[in-house]
Specification:
The protein is α/β, with parallel strands linked by helices. It has 15 helices and 16 strands.
Length: about 475
């Protein structure tokens, strides 16, 4: 979705420029850029989020088209302004998406006002405030000069003369060697970094990040978060990712190869897939910018609620159930209609949502085309919340029995092997839990069948035993 619109919020007299996409009235996804940047830093994800959210990417005060604070910047001050903005524009908790300094601001907001934040997606977030050694060598002297008017003029003059040199110095610091960043994106990002009149706020934010070290406080963060980092990030170094791993065990930390400080630009498809999986977006990567209607979103929510009480729903939280529901198709079969046949090659698992499924098998004939109706045996009825077809889906083998829609028809939720593999790749925790639940359901069914066989054997022995 490329149809973005823009406007300006006024929060307690402070103007905040924003760009938005998606349907108003839906839950807000508030997108917060990083240092020396603007709303454009979040643009690769704006259309994606617009599928199911009202996505709003802002310019923080002092950046882009938002005027700066008159009395200086701190990260808590940014966080409080955003809290006031959320109170003004939203009637429920929001989803925060923050990059770099925007990630630090998001975490600070979540710490101070957890009731305002449902969950977060953080892209290379600043944690300790200590940027890489290279950044400090290249940038610290410039930011020190930019604090003062004359210094800012000197820096601007030098940058105009040597912009090519500074770009060559900064590009390997910001982006991976094998980055997939396009030249058009790079030029637009550099325009934000060179924007005149922002020297003072750049210098203030550089110090503000150092003064807002989050190390030692992440354990107390309540809202869940997906944290994505580039393996070659030379701006916010991976030592900050180590802090996340050590202190924030509930965060879903992902490290992307061939990405630096801008994973959503450098590894765009992979980043979008991770975000889509985490936020329960329903479509595959080829359709990530297609808006989703209210009816489909309602259906996903209803399926997620149903999953909670099904074979697949054990030990899944609400967000995980939504992610799983978004990967399932809904099918309806009339009474007596064949759902699947024995010996059929299939890669689909069925979860019964309404009605029941009859399982039939011909024990004397392995060729379904030659089945004798007189020999076909009714094996079982599977009810709401149960799964079937899991073996054929997992091993891509032949189905062992016919599945027929029971009396009154049946509504099924269908999970394909391809979608299950995608879940495993994009969300290993969810994928492992789904596989575990499948194996538990299969185990319960096998145990029940064995119990039936044992009971039948005991009855047979009793009949043969003289009284």
């Amino acid at each position: 979705m490329d149809a973005f619109s823009e406007g300006t919020f006024n929060v307690n007299g402070q103007e905040i420029h924003y760009v938005e996409a998606g349907q108003r009235g839906r839950q807000i996804a508030l997108m917060i850029h990083g240092w020396s940047s603007s709303w454009y830093a979040m643009s690769p994800l704006l259309g994606l989020l617009a599928q199911r959210f009202h996505a709003i990417a802002i310019d923080l005060p002092g950046y882009g088209q938002s005027p700066r604070f008159e009395d200086g910047v701190t990260i808590p001050k940014y966080a409080e302004l955003l809290a006031d903005l959320i109170e003004q524009i939203s009637d429920r908790p929001v989803v925060l998406i923050g990059h770099s300094m925007g990630g630090m601001t998001s975490i600070t907001l979540a710490q101070k006002h957890p009731v305002l934040v449902e969950r977060m997606v953080l892209l290379s977030p600043t944690i300790s405030g200590k940027l890489s050694t290279t950044i400090n060598i290249l940038i610290s002297p410039i930011t020190a000069l930019e604090r003062f008017g004359l210094g800012s003029l000197i820096v601007s003059a030098v940058e105009n003369l040597f912009v090519g040199l500074t770009d060559r110095l900064m590009k390997p610091v910001s982006f991976a060697e094998r980055s997939q960043l396009t030249e058009a994106h790079y030029e637009r990002l550099r325009q934000d970094a060179r924007r005149p009149g922002q020297g003072r706020v750049r210098a203030e934010c550089f110090s503000a990040m150092l003064a807002n070290d989050l190390s030692g406080s992440l354990t107390a963060v309540q809202p869940p978060a997906l944290v994505i980092w580039g393996a070659e990030d030379n701006t916010v170094p991976l030592r900050d990712a180590g802090v996340v791993a050590d202190e924030w065990s509930s965060a879903d930390l992902r490290i992307l190869p061939r990405a630096g400080h801008w994973p959503h630009f450098e590894m765009e498809d992979q980043t979008r897939r991770l975000v889509a999986a985490y936020l329960g977006l329903p479509l595959t990567s080829s359709d990530l910018n297609t808006p989703v209607g209210d009816e489909e979103l309602d259906q996903i929510s209803q399926i997620a609620q149903f999953i909670a009480h099904s074979d697949l729903g054990d030990n899944l939280n609400e967000a995980q159930r939504i992610r799983l529901a978004a990967q399932m198709q809904q099918r309806v079969y009339e009474e007596g209609e064949i759902i699947a046949q024995a010996k059929e090659i299939s890669q689909e698992l069925f979860l019964i949502q309404e009605g029941f499924v009859e399982v039939w098998k011909d024990p004397d004939n392995v060729d379904p085309s030659q089945q004798n109706d007189d020999n076909v045996q009714h094996v079982a009825n599977l009810r709401e919340g149960q799964i079937t077809g899991e073996l054929a889906m997992l091993d891509e083998g032949e189905r062992s029995a016919d599945l027929v829609a029971g009396r009154g028809g049946v509504k099924l939720l269908v999970l394909s092997r391809e979608r299950l593999m995608t879940i495993n790749e994009d969300d290993a925790v969810l994928g492992s839990r789904v596989l575990w639940n499948i194996s538990r359901a299969l185990s319960r069914r096998v145990r029940f069948v064995l119990w039936q066989l044992n009971r039948a054997e005991e009855r047979k022995k009793a009949e043969l035993t003289p009284q």
